[in-house]
Amino acid sequence: MQSKPELRQEILETERLLLKELNQEIIYNLFTYYTDEEIMDFMGLHTENEFELERMKFEGGRTTYRTSFKTFLIVDKVSNKPIGKIGFHNWYIHHFRSEFGYNISDDFFLRKGYMTEAAKALVEYGFRIMGLNRIEAFTATDNIPSRKMLENLGFKQEGVLKEHYFTDNRMQDSVCYALLLKEYNRQEK
């Protein structure tokens, strides 16, 4: 029997969190060599639906010739358990821009500043390490905590995209936010 390969991850550290990268190699190794239970534990997945969604992403491929992604598990330092994900998807490498997404899957960690802490680290990583010029974020019009967090990070609202995504059996609008490198550099001074 073939032994499981080591899952080498880039790790970003904040005061209370570790952001552990989920790259193509890690995803491939997880779904090739690890059990479903091990995958769910590693990724902090709580339901079979969450697991099946990750499997579909793996089987369908996550990159194309022109887009890629950079995803991190958000891990609580105290419990060493994943509490959510944060990352860049729809990363247009040749255009120096990416869409930024995030979620906390454990209600205990909501509204305690954990996402803001993770987001600050990842926005800096996007501009300083990935070489992004523009970071975009889309959030539901009624998701006030997410909108406030983005605005506190310096993102500017650019508009509302009507019927932008389908959830809860209906089309919903998204608010488009963006932060440019030059704006980020100004606020860092």
Account of the 3D structure:
- The protein has 189 residues and is an alpha+beta fold.
- 33% of the residues lie in helices and 35% in strands.
- It has helices at 24-33, 36-43, 48-60, 114-128, 144-152, 181-188, and strands at 11-13, 17-22, 68-76, 82-92, 97-104, 134-140, 156-167, 170-180.
- Strands 1-2-3-4-5-6-8-7 form an eight-stranded mixed sheet, sandwiched between helices.
- Strand 7 and strand 8 (170-180) form a beta hairpin.
- It is globular.
Provide the descriptors you would attach to this structure in a database record.
single chain; 189 residues; alpha+beta; eight-stranded mixed β-sheet; 6 helices; 33% helix
State the gist of this model.
It is built from six helices and eight strands. By secondary structure, it is an alpha+beta fold.
- In N-to-C order, the SSE pattern is EEHHHEEEHEHEEH
Q: Tell me, rounded to a whole number, the average pLDDT.
A: 87
The value of Rg in angstroms is 17 Å
Principal-axis shape:
globular
Number of strands: 8
| Biggest β-sheet description | 8 strands, mixed
Task: Please give the order of strands in the largest beta sheet.
Answer: 1-2-3-4-5-6-8-7
